[in-house]
Design goal:
single chain; Udp-n-acetylmuramoylalanyl-d-glutamate--2,6- Diaminopimelate Ligase, Chain: A, domain 1; UDP-N-acetylmuramoyl-L-alanine:D-glutamate ligase; Protein-Tyrosine Phosphatase, Chain A; 3 domains; eleven-stranded mixed beta sheet
Amino acid sequence: MNDIHIKNLTTDSRQVKPGDLFIAVPGLTVDGRAYIEQAIKNGTVAVVTERKLIGHIAARFFSNPSEKLPVIGITGTSGKTSVSHFIAEIMSYCERSCGVIGTLGTGIFSEKQRFKEIRISHDEKPDKTTHDYTTPDAIAVQRTLAALQKQNVSAVAMEVTSHALDQNRVAGVEFDTVIFTNLTRDHLDYHPDMQTYGEVKKKLFTEFQAKQSIINLDDAFGRVLFTELKALNKTGRVLGYSCHKIPPVPPFSKGGNNVVIADNVVLDKHGIRATVKTPWGEGELRSHLLGLFNVSNILAALTAVCLQGVPLNAVLKAIKAISTAPGRMMRFGGNTEMPLVIVDYAHKPDALALVLEALRGHCVGELWCVVGCGGDRDRGKRPVMAAIGERLSDHLYLTQDNPRTEDPTQIMAEMIQGLKNPTKVIVEYDRAKAIDSAIKNAKAEDIILVAGKGHETYQIIGTEKMPFSDKLVVEAALERRMLCLL
């Protein structure tokens, strides 16, 4: 039998062209096997129906780009986007280009453009059906890594979600480094329970032979994972990082060549100061970012970049200049006449709590919070989110996020169930009006958190994406307040 020449790979039967290989596997809502006949009519020369094979086939088709390009995979409930962007920004500052694959798309960080979308040729475009995933499908992952390799990046920082691990989207990727940030409640509309969620996350460290693993030791699941990985005694190096005091028990108390620590952490209006102790020496860490969780994110990025051979002094110098990822702790206002307004993507209980606790440490006035919950998603977190907002802020606005196809009044009712004193909470379904009201009523010394949507430029109402940007709404509201002062 003669070998078959494959021209391209696709999971979309509508995009099949003569000579293509059609991947026909069950998805969350569509079963690709139902479209095999259409793919054959369009000219497919072969069909694959086994999901586990896709990544390895795609890796071979694109000449195994991760064998030649260091790929840094980041997983965890929160922090994936920030850590990936910090890695890319630090490396760029140190004159080593770095690609990013994740929630905000695929690109190469540059000082001028901050984040430059990568150009993929017409023949290399990912299937439209997979473009919106934080971690693309297995074919798109390999196609994108190959495109980044062609642009001669030094490394790639890639967010790896639990969905991606469960669905084998990163199969075939040879990771140089893998990072664990934390594990808290999320995606229980997909995973049956937290134990399953954690075990899926663990796959990145146990089923892939990464050269180096970096683990957050301030997270309970992370400490267990660190201990397990050390006990496995694999050839890969295992490092931990912490911005709290490490428990005085092995293996954490050893420090030295396997733990990165931020000591004497100071949070003030200027940002972050700390002393870092690493396997590569000690130094002073300074950043204008806010919050202890950003200290943790910075430590993860610092460790990853140092493992790529960048000197610690150069990394610490770069950290002074790094900015937040789009939609993460973005700052607006904050002068002598305006409250400081923070726009953040925090849409999960732990993330909301972390941000509010971080801002409380920087706030000399009162703390305001504007937050909602999305429709068609984990309903259990709705009262929890409201309870956190009520407990950790002085003024709470409950509003819409992305209601999707759910009745907004039902979403709001479930949030209100978490409140101890509903009469003190302002309910405003119009998100723009809620943001405007908070900015209008806050004092100059106050801080306002607008949480949940971050970088998003739309609001999903029903099945439509309507233009909406927290950033633009905040800027307009601050401008109106300024005009009233003139």
